[in-house]
Amino acid sequence: MNMNEQIILTGRHEQIRDLDVLPRWDRSLVDYRKYHQYVGQSGIRYEMTMQATRGCPYRCFYCDVQNLTPMHRRRSVESVFDEVKYLHDMGVRKSEFIDDAFNVNVNAFKAFFRKVIDSGMDMNFYFQSGLRGDLLDKEAIDLMVEGGTKSMNLALESASPRLQKMMGKYLQIDRLRENLAYIVEKYPQIIVGLNAMHGFPTETEEEAQATVDFIMDVKWLHFAHLHNVRIFPNSRLEKVALEHGVTKEEIEESLTMPYHIIPPTIKLDPDFSRKLRLRFVYQYVLSPKRLRHVLRHQLAVMNEEELIYKYRTIFPTHIETLDDILRLAKIKREEIDISKMPKADVPHIVYPKRTQKAAEGALRILFLDASHFFSADRSNEINAVEPPLGGMAILSYLNEKFGDRIYGEIVKTGVDVDTMEELRTRMQSFRPDFLMLRTLTYYKDFFVDVVAECRKLFPDVPIVAGGPHPTIDPEDCLCRAGVDVCVIGEGEIICGELVGQMLEEGQFPDTQMLQNIKGVAFRSDGQIHPKAVVPNGKKATYARYPLWVRAGTEKAVNV
Length: 559
Description:
Layout: E1 7-9, H1 32-35, E2 47-50, E3 53-54, H2 65-68, E4 73-74, H3 77-90, E5 94-97, H4 106-119, E6 124-131, H5 138-146, E7 149-157, H6 161-167, H7 173-186, E8 191-198, H8 205-217, E9 223-228, H9 236-243, H10 248-254, H11 270-285, H12 288-298, H13 304-312, H14 322-329, E10 363-369, H15 389-402, E11 406-412, H16 420-430, E12 434-438, H17 444-457, E13 463-466, H18 468-472, H19 474-481, E14 485-487, H20 492-505, H21 511-514, E15 520-523
Parallel strand pairs: 2-5, 5-6, 6-7, 7-8, 8-9, 10-11, 10-12, 12-13, 13-14
Antiparallel strand pairs: 1-15, 3-4, 14-15
Helix pairs in contact: 3-4, 4-5, 8-11, 15-20, 16-17, 17-19
């Protein structure tokens, strides 16, 4: 960026307070058959995602949700139930909630499950995140199970009261412990996971060990994760880390590091961190006694593909078959009963068909979700795929607002297109007038190459970026990737204003017009189409996602 060049932020756009006024996601905008080839984030296939709330009322310093959606809001119980029924009538039987804080309103949470129970629907629900474990009680847990919940993932982060206060989470640790004990004893068939983090600024070895001890004391957890703390740009955690000796360079280096590698941002003794992780994995996760107990329940809920996915997220080696799991746990196949393992049957889902056609003269909008590597760049990646919900939300809103004056399509890298050549062909075929791109920080280098390809093909087409990474680090997207505008936070209304001005003025808003739109960031030099710059003038080297690698782990069994 030039010395005289600045990033202009126009302030926050007011968030949508009543989520019920938004149109239901148009599920015909994506081809779910492509996505159902993969397991979702919850480790299941043939699911469709739901969202009952936006935002989170808590202010944990490591989380970027407060930047995306600072205010917590929820849809009405009736609205959420109606959409679940809509999915059920399509033939969907598995639904994953992607909320950040679904159960903050305890009464609404319970009311939803009562409504599901009263309806008699045979839906299965999965919570990869979004449940605050200390806000649950026995009644809520009972309703969840009776209402069809099959798995839930809860968050501990740290068992240290000092760190809980420091990070702003203020988790009631004893209450979480009680709820976990209740679930694993009364409902051993519910797939319960627990997330924790390692390497907070100022974290001591004693505090790190206390977190691991907390997990290991919950005897029958199905899946437990010990993640490295990841520091996102412009977060409160970044500020705290910088105050305690972490450098900007170390933060930047760590952002795209594989998750099995201890990043330079963790200042604990690397040998301590390595041994802590290995002992946790081999003494708890791979404990034959624990595995014999949980596997018999897991085998009644998940097929082999789903089971392997779940174990690969925590195992320190490559897992390809059930036998790999048994081998590492030193369990013989004849010691377990696999006869009840469900088959990977394909459900009869009536997928919605897109009926909208591109009207003559319609503004052509391509929404490109660049948050998944191409196959050639993810040889060891845990290949979970989620549909581009942000694209569906925004295009559903724009279609309702502008009708046939616009025509949009959604493309996700690694799914709809799996090479840069396929992306190029798809874009040339569509001929966009407007490009909307989304990405995550983990894919930011990949994003640079994608934007460069877009700019090469369509030098005069405006490129707007949104989602987590453009929101938390607009400078990287504007100056390194070379997009024209970043949407900060919630995108429906902001994108509606950009599209509205293009329809009325016949061109993308100039810098003067952009200053009147709340919730955007752009370059002050007035260049709407800067040249994308790839680091060192070479193809970016992307991070891989093999949570662990085989090398060195077999020797660690006896640690």
